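question for whoever is on the cluster today: can someone run the full assembly for these? two chains, 620 residues total. i dont have access anymore since they changed the login thing
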Amino acid sequence: MITLETNPKKQTYAIGIDLGGTYIKSAVVDSKGKILKHYKTEAYSNISPKKVIEQIEKCIAELRKRMKHEISGIGIGAPGIVTHGIIKYPPNFKGWKEVNIKKQFEKKYKLETLVDNDANCAGLAELRFGHGKKYNNFIFLTLGTGIGGAMVLNGEIYRGEQNGAGEFGMTTINFDGPKCLGGNPGAVEAYLGRNYFLENEKEEINKLGKEIDFDDIQKLAKKKNKIALELFKKYGFYLGVGLTNYFNLMDVRTAILGGGISNAYEFFKDECVKTIKKRSIKTINGTFRVLRSKINNDAGVLGAAALILD
Amino acid sequence: MITLETNPKKQTYAIGIDLGGTYIKSAVVDSKGKILKHYKTEAYSNISPKKVIEQIEKCIAELRKRMKHEISGIGIGAPGIVTHGIIKYPPNFKGWKEVNIKKQFEKKYKLETLVDNDANCAGLAELRFGHGKKYNNFIFLTLGTGIGGAMVLNGEIYRGEQNGAGEFGMTTINFDGPKCLGGNPGAVEAYLGRNYFLENEKEEINKLGKEIDFDDIQKLAKKKNKIALELFKKYGFYLGVGLTNYFNLMDVRTAILGGGISNAYEFFKDECVKTIKKRSIKTINGTFRVLRSKINNDAGVLGAAALILD
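^ ran it for u. tokens below:
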């Protein structure tokens, strides 16, 4: 009878915080990846680092209200470069240089605080709670305004020499290609990043109407609009070239797509797969897979919490 | 006194065999990477697998003649795909499908036999006996007819899911670029492989004279011939684009160059380094290094022996 009460696999709980430029998403997550409670608020990244941190603290306070479970720690996923708990120069955060959020929060909350970049967190979420249950080696891509990447090798996030690995968006697929803020002309991001794509293809896109955005193209593709379908075909080709490079180099066979643009995968899947089949080496081209993330919307908070739950 | 005779760091010795399409190089190597004896013979890869194996056995017999040290095992580096001691379809080896050389040799010689692909062996040699003493993360490139790559991550050869990792030559830097036997247009090899380069640049090369090969261009560059120097500048640019992709993706900062073409590095270094500085992400571009291998000519046999000495 006692065994029922002393279950060795005791459930643990962590707070996961997904710090974005516009919103902060946060949640209490259990070790199985179940979200018990969540809270979302504005990031106010255009005001000051102090204001952003206040907003994170507001999330933590809201989540802890009437929470009966003991919290093991706080995990935070943040944009930009993260090393040793310090968030460095996150893009589009006004006045933010280097903030040691780990030190600050561990002092304030007496709870272990772990910080990683948002792409690694999303990859970790996929590894623990998504397709990663089945695949031990994959690249997780966030297809959105930017193109983020997280590499999972042998069941672990690969971080590189200075925690900066996975910059798939900064790999060139055409050295004569369009410019990219990252300084690497013809990089994957200069083709696949939302605004880059809209800019590069504006001639075709203008034929669809005025002020057309990515969602509009997707809606038109659903209605079988030929121009919209052709545009997604291009998107699939560029993604296919980039993924072929990854598969060939790494001898890895799985890619998982997240981010807003992955919702349109049905429209660029065929061309993407066709391109990889055509370009990849013999041992790869019959065996790879490109999948949509199962946990896309919650990947940020789940991955941040997983930093602690791991 | 006794301590002098029972040195705990007992020296071990291995045979290393570098199986090439034209020659087989072989050596007895000690655990410090010193070559005690070497032997080179023709591979006869254009005749039959049986003949090639006879030639390897001839090497082993020659090396063991009057060898007073005990041999711990046989390491073999081979072209093509190698898994579990089986050499599969090495390019340009007539009639060779799949040969389990490990099984065959362990039965015959009663010595542990380990087989890996030649690029990994060269990388392993560099790791144990070359620049790898200083750097724990690097890519080793063989610049020759083909472009081979070996990835060292955290002090170990990274092999990928099916021992096929490191195909740097099969990563595209321009999807509209020249064709490549590997089926991946605009791949690094289609720019940097010896014959590809000579073909792509033939218009300029023809200005230098008739039947000009890579060595001739190098000789002319030494004499400050402008066309030759411009050709190497192009070579450096392509290499720089490829390496930027690697550095950005992997957050690794070291590349080591081997293979025949690396002997001309002085002529393409500046453009290569300039290109990486221009294209790599902020955290990389002041901190990377591209080095020539110190052990280039012996890398094959040293790495093959290191399979055993490890």
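summary bc i know u wont read the tokens: Chain B has two domains: 2-123+299-309, 134-291. The first helix of chain B runs from residue 2 to 5.
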